[in-house]
Amino acid sequence: MSAPDDRVPSTTRWGIALAALVGTVALAVHDPMVAPAALVGTGVAATIGLFAGPHRRISAAAMLLPTVVLGGVAVVGLGGGPIRALTSAVGILVASVTCSVVRGRPTPSALRRTGEAALCSAVVAGGAALLAFGIDALSGPAPMIDAILWLTGEGVSGLLVGLVVTIAAIACALLFVPLAAVTVPSRGDSAHKARNALLLAAGIAISIVVAIAVLTVLSPLIALFEPVLEPIAASTFVRGLLTIATGSAVAVAVLALVVRKSWLETDGYRNPTVPIVVGSVLGITLPFVGVTGVGSFDPAVVAALFAAAAVVLGVGWLAAWLYEGAVVRGEAPGPELVLAAGLAGGSIVAGASVETVALERETIRAGTATFVALAAALFTYDVGRYGRTLATEVGADASRRPQVVRLGWSGTVAVVGIPIAILGLAGAAVLAPTLSVPATAGVIVAVTATVGGTWLLFR
Amino acid sequence: MTGPTADRLDGGEWAVAATLSLAGLGIAVGSQLLVAAATLPLWYVAAAVLGTEPEAMVRVQRRLSVSDGSTDGTAAEGPISGAPGDTVTVRTIVRNTGSETLLDLRVVDGVPDALPVVSGSPRACETLEPLEETTLEYEVELRRGEHAFDDATVRARDLTGTVAETWAASVAGDGAIDCSRVVETVPLGDGTNDYAGDVPTDEGGTGLEFHSVREYEPGDPVGAIDWRRYANTRELATVEYRAERSTRIVCVVDARSSQFRAATSTNVPAVVRSAHAAERTFETLVGAGHPTGAIAIHDNDLTTVPPGTDPATRREVTGLVDELREPANTIHLSYSRTETDVAALAGRLPGEAQVYLFSSFIDDEPIELVEGLRARGYAVRVVSPDVTAADDVATRLAALERGTRLARARAAGARVLDWDRDESLGVRLRNATGEVGRR
């Protein structure tokens, strides 16, 4: 007999998605920042979905992930306070999990790649944050670039040190790049010989530069060449070329080392390390260059933005790693449960933001967000349990009619309590401060006791 | 059918916990909104309280039919039968015979564990009005053996989804499938010669069924040219059809002294049943136009009738079979056969012939014969009368050993018909070679 799967049937899925949409709109009525946060959450879900595709999509996803996270950090940061930041975070969570409910849980491989991209992006974002701090400390990008260009020192000696560093970096890149990445197995021997010849040439070049350096120090005759060497040593163009060559060689060497390491650890034939690394680096570098190139942004803000993004991406890597393990072990909570928790969290945040109940617009908005989001959370939890049981007992292809009946019933139960809660709240507002919080709690206890008694009676 | 059991699936505990949590949180942070919101989960508690046991009455009926339409469960007596690998369509109709609407009725049909569901689902969840019915339609793939369907498991939930009634509903209609190969289903094998005939092969050539399109070669008949392709691409191509070749068949009857064993003292011995089956098979094959011969394996020699369709061949085969049916006329000696005998038998067989072996497999020599013939490339079909039906320990042990030998024969590539003694060959043998194999 065919084993039923654990995916919630589609009608129930769409019902849950509708409830999530209603809850998100209610939260957005209270705090408009939820709307852009939901867009960011949708972007996160779409990006994670892209990681399950071929390499081109993986590279696009790796490039989008840090960009989306930067946008999310900006949205949450622009909230201007912990409550709004929390509400925005809830909006991101609800939107991304809703996408998981509709489209299905991400595959373990997609989660693993997401984690790898998040880790890589976190490292690069950390470097970008340090760079931004440096720019801030040096009062602008131009002094920063200048400092980098002349890092090896001024004069002929600095030029020679720069040459040695550049040649060494190129030699490292040649040494670390796997030959399989640049040639086919049939030409492996010739490529090996060519690489050895290039490494030998690099060694000889370093030796010549060191010899020139020694002669510069020891021989007074070399002073004759100073009129020629000094303009070269003082040339910004030459230093720029050396810096670009050194940076490129170091980047290639690091990429080659990562690729070597990942190939040794992979079990499959296809290894998405290169698109992940390249996409992640571009996903951080391009926004950084764009933000710093505009010049209107405060370097301190840029540094804080990228540092926060690095932290979020690092946490994202940890979360993806843990969630992937839970999915593989079959212990991951269902997305419906997470969605219900997110909506309930948003409801609590909205409700806790209003201390004194009064018949005014802010209270109505907060009340709408609290009650509707909580009703959506309860509906999502109840229907999610129903859908999961239905999927286990019958399968994901269960017919629509009983699902619609169940959705209608649960929706009715969720909705019918809202006007009564609003009436109770209005009564509390009218009677305030007579009906204080403890008094309201007393009313709740009384209602609970009534329902409990009825329950016992029916039992 | 077992009695229904009612279970309360949800008592609303989670909603009570949510209420208490929200109320406590509201009191802690001093938010009247949260305290008021704590009433919302209580409605789910109330809904759980309102849940009552559904009054469900259903009638379940099952119909089985083999996918090719040759067998229909409604028309046949006894269990439905089919060959291994056949697909059986199962239609289980569930009808609400009660007076109340069943809002959430879940049914799981009792599919035998050995039969994989290859299409559709034996599970369903429906809402049924009174007297409304729904049909579970799915297909299972047959496996060797007899398979019985279990009762359907039915679960009805009320509107709130908090109370469920579960029971095993007895199913009217078909409930068993027999997947034991019978004589008429033993097909011709893939052994053919180079003469034209009516056994399709996997070679291209002249025939009726399309085989392939290849590049035109000079000398190909004009009628075989794909003119449409030529009109489109100006490239000549030749259409080939599946070549149909002739085949020759030899019915090998095991008439050694070990084959004089019978299931009981009142039953005929294996050799008589083998001779009877061989005769009927011979007649059917010759009637279908296949040159057929016969070889009888005695303890110390072989009696051979070369394949043919002429009256002389028929007379010789009939005489041979009649002789085998009268074991008293034959002197049987204790004699152990060796591999040389397999070679001797192979020497009497025409090249690329198909072999029908009739033997009870009560000892090891038939399996050695099958493996030897398979090693030499002959297509082998085995018809094995079962003479191990008694209940004593020795016979049961012999039955186990015989089953192992038949499994070895199947593993060697022979197609095996295990012929039970209760089955009447005369009734069942209608189309001994209705199916033909391909090379």
From TrEMBL, chain A:
<feature type="transmembrane region" description="Helical">
    <location>
        <begin position="12"/>
        <end position="29"/>
    </location>
</feature>
<feature type="transmembrane region" description="Helical">
    <location>
        <begin position="437"/>
        <end position="458"/>
    </location>
</feature>
<feature type="transmembrane region" description="Helical">
    <location>
        <begin position="35"/>
        <end position="53"/>
    </location>
</feature>
<feature type="transmembrane region" description="Helical">
    <location>
        <begin position="404"/>
        <end position="431"/>
    </location>
</feature>
<keyword id="KW-1133">Transmembrane helix</keyword>
<feature type="transmembrane region" description="Helical">
    <location>
        <begin position="198"/>
        <end position="225"/>
    </location>
</feature>
<protein>
    <submittedName>
        <fullName>Uncharacterized protein</fullName>
    </submittedName>
</protein>
<feature type="transmembrane region" description="Helical">
    <location>
        <begin position="237"/>
        <end position="259"/>
    </location>
</feature>
<feature type="transmembrane region" description="Helical">
    <location>
        <begin position="116"/>
        <end position="135"/>
    </location>
</feature>
<keyword id="KW-0812">Transmembrane</keyword>
<feature type="transmembrane region" description="Helical">
    <location>
        <begin position="271"/>
        <end position="294"/>
    </location>
</feature>
<feature type="transmembrane region" description="Helical">
    <location>
        <begin position="85"/>
        <end position="104"/>
    </location>
</feature>
<feature type="transmembrane region" description="Helical">
    <location>
        <begin position="155"/>
        <end position="177"/>
    </location>
</feature>
<feature type="transmembrane region" description="Helical">
    <location>
        <begin position="60"/>
        <end position="79"/>
    </location>
</feature>
<feature type="transmembrane region" description="Helical">
    <location>
        <begin position="300"/>
        <end position="323"/>
    </location>
</feature>
<keyword id="KW-0472">Membrane</keyword>
From TrEMBL, chain B:
<dbReference type="Pfam" id="PF01882">
    <property type="entry name" value="DUF58"/>
</dbReference>
<protein>
    <submittedName>
        <fullName>DUF58 domain-containing protein</fullName>
    </submittedName>
</protein>
<feature type="domain" description="DUF58">
    <location>
        <begin position="212"/>
        <end position="384"/>
    </location>
</feature>
<dbReference type="InterPro" id="IPR002881">
    <property type="entry name" value="DUF58"/>
</dbReference>
